[in-house]
Amino acid sequence: SMQCFPGLVLALSSLLGALALLQLSLHLRVPSRYGKHEERLCRPRGRLPARCAWFLQELPSFLVPALLLALRSPPRLEPLGCRLLCCLFCWHYFYRTFIYPFFTRGRPFPLQLLFFGMLFCIYNGFLQGYYLIYCAEYPNDWCTDIRFTSGLLLFLLGMGINIHSDLLLRQLRKPGEVTYKIPQGGLFTYVSGANYFGEIVEWFGFAIATWSLPAFAFAFFTLCCIGPRAYHHHRYYLKTFTDYPKSRKALIPFIF
Ligand code: NDX
Q1: N or C: which terminus of the chain carries fewer CB neighbours within 10 A?
Q2: Atom in ligand 1 nearest the alpha carbon of residue 118
Q3: Mean pLDDT for each consecutive 10-residue tract of the chain (256 residues)?
Q4: CB of 36 closer than 6 A to ligand 1?
Q5: Which of 225, 234, 238, 241 best tests ligand 1's pocket when mutated (most atoms within 8 Å of CB)?
Q6: Global pTM value
């Protein structure tokens, strides 16, 4: 049966950190080619409806840790912290896999990116789940540790912002529409990438709550992946809408 190999956790986390830097170097200047940053002349072939694409892409992030958690024998019951943290991760991806895709009004998604996105979700789902279920050691009172409580709070706050912002974006379109409008309300009042801001806060909260290398590596990846994307969205809006709110920042309210 499976057991903890600390060397494996270290290797996979380091590679995740390296992927984050690769992502940053590839997409700091040129955005990832999906959504509003896809080239004009793209073939309809090689794409999947947004619903299927997001469902398939994010499913492994839910399934892999959920299966690891369910199949571990003997079941890991102690400490409570480990199961709770694993459940938080699965909870986010339950939303992202089973709820978000069914409401999205996004454009069809490129198959090639879907493929890499899925690989990424398998990789990260395994790393986070494996670490929490087989490796993590917490004192029995971890649930009352300031890192756990403050991290959990940030996680919940970030998730709230992320879900609310996803909703505001979706409401910009009627079903079947594919045009872009100026997002309004919620944290969009302050930043162009409100959904991304929420997601980043969420995963840094998770990292603090788990106080683990894999989770910090993933938070760093998230920052490197969607941080620049928020900036590209911001530039797109400034270029497209002459009446775009001047005081609005790209990612961090009042700052950047
Ligand atoms: N999926 C994370 N790199 C990824 C997809 C792409 O969850 O190979 C990262 C994720 C993947 C990526 C994933 C990993 C790295 C990949 C990359 C592709 C290449 C890259 C694999 C796994 C790679 C190497 C080689 C280094 C490994 O038509 P539309 O679609 O634009 O419509 C949009 C709509 N909308 C508007 N509607 C009207 N008016 C407007 N002004 C609108 N603006 C937007 O709203 C969408 O339907 C919807 C949301 O759009 P957008 O662009 O704001 O968000 P999006 O980027 O689609 O993300 C959706 C949610 C969001 O909440 C975000 O926080 C979360 O997913 N997310 C996204 C990406 C990564 C991630 C989270 C994470 O790292 N945690």
Answers
A1: N
A2: 22
A3: 93 98 95 87 78 98 95 74 89 98 96 97 97 92 94 98 98 94 98 98 98 98 98 97 97 94
A4: yes
A5: 225
A6: 0.96
